[in-house]
């Protein structure tokens, strides 16, 4: 049986507020001192090159626009780390191992459960926030993305692999964690000439052509990069209809000169079918209004980007004033790079 040397315990604490947007950079470094893990007599033979080295973390958050990136050190919170290869009887795979920073550096939350690397190159993956999603019991690096409210805790980020080869001779693993979701937002205003309360009681979002690409739920494997066509799975949906009953747009309506942005959602990333736009149907003051967003201005909901659709409610119609698609960073609202208007 393998014995591990342990010295400290670090309490877990959830990370809130550090990631309004951007990517996370995690640096895994070897523990100081004697990091070998000796075996008792009778344990499986381990080659000298297979000495296991535990790791700890240093974490930074990357902010800014595409052309001006900065990093901020994270001093609290938890992430989950996976080692899926190599796998052997003396070094089995490790799944969803939590690492926590309680103010004195990043450590394994459970000092008896550290991610270990040996002489062979390791396959490592990570995600944040820890326990913000559940993973499949068979494909243990696969989770499910569903449409949900945008919040810091819902903002799943992941790294499919470190930026360099990792083994016990090079145990420093840098992870750049990226957004798993696309962010979709409606910015709704009312024209000064609109005569009623502007109460929006129903919203239906769907592709213009039935059966076209549109996803509200998708599986995602965090061990695969976004360029891997097998990273995402799932079946297309007919439409999406959110519950509006607790929103101001439903209860009191949208006032004049007020921009309503209550529809702020995380969507599974997806590309819409070529030539097929999105159709929005809104019930406003008991009347139904329809508007189409052409695919030449919104062809996809891209992971790591937010799409802001600007609508104006007029007396007899809804007009699309514009669509802003920009990199999703913590300062993107009102200050980010605008790629499309």
Automatic annotation (TrEMBL):
A UniProt-annotated Pfam family: Mfa_like_1
Database matches in Gene3D superfamilies: 2.60.40.2630, Fimbrillin-like (2.60.40.2620)
Protein name (record): Fimbrillin family protein
InterPro entries in the cross-refs: Mfa-like_1 (IPR025049), Mfa-like_1_N (IPR042278)
Ranges in coiled-coil conformation: none
Biological source species: Bacteroides nordii
Signal peptide: none
């Amino acid at each position: 049986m393998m014995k591990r040397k342990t010295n400290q315990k670090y309490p877990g604490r959830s990370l809130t507020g550090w990631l309004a947007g951007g990517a996370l950079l995690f640096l895994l470094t070897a523990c100081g001192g004697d990091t070998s893990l000796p075996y008792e007599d009778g344990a499986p033979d381990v080659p000298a090159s297979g000495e296991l080295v535990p790791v700890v973390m240093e974490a930074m958050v990357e902010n800014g626009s595409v052309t001006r990136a900065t990093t901020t050190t994270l001093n609290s919170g938890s992430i989950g780390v996976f080692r899926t290869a190599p796998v052997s009887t003396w070094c089995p795979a490790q799944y969803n191992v939590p690492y926590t920073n309680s103010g004195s550096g990043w450590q394994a939350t459970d000092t008896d459960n550290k991610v270990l690397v040996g002489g062979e190159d390791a396959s490592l993956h990570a995600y944040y926030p820890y326990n913000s999603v559940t993973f499949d019991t068979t494909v243990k690096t696969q989770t499910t993305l569903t449409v949900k409210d945008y919040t810091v805790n819902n903002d799943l980020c992941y790294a499919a692999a470190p930026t360099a080869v990792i083994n016990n001779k090079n145990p420093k693993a840098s992870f750049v964690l990226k957004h798993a979701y696309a962010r979709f937002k409606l910015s709704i205003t009312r024209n000064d000439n609109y005569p009623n309360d502007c109460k929006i009681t129903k919203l239906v979002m769907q592709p213009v052509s039935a059966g076209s690409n549109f996803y509200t739920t998708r599986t995602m494997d965090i061990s695969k990069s976004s360029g891997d066509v097998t990273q995402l799975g799932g079946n297309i949906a007919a439409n999406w209809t959110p519950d509006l009953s607790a929103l101001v747009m439903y209860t009191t309506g949208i006032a004049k000169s007020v921009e309503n942005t209550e529809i702020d959602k995380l969507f599974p990333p997806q590309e819409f079918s070529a030539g097929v736009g999105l159709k929005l149907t809104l019930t406003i003051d008991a009347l139904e209004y329809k508007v189409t967003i052409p695919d030449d201005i919104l062809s996809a909901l891209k992971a790591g980007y937010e799409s802001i659709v600007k609508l104006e409610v007029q007396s007899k119609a809804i007009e699309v004033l514009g669509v802003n698609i920009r990199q999703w960073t913590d300062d993107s609202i009102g200050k980010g790079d605008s790629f499309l208007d």
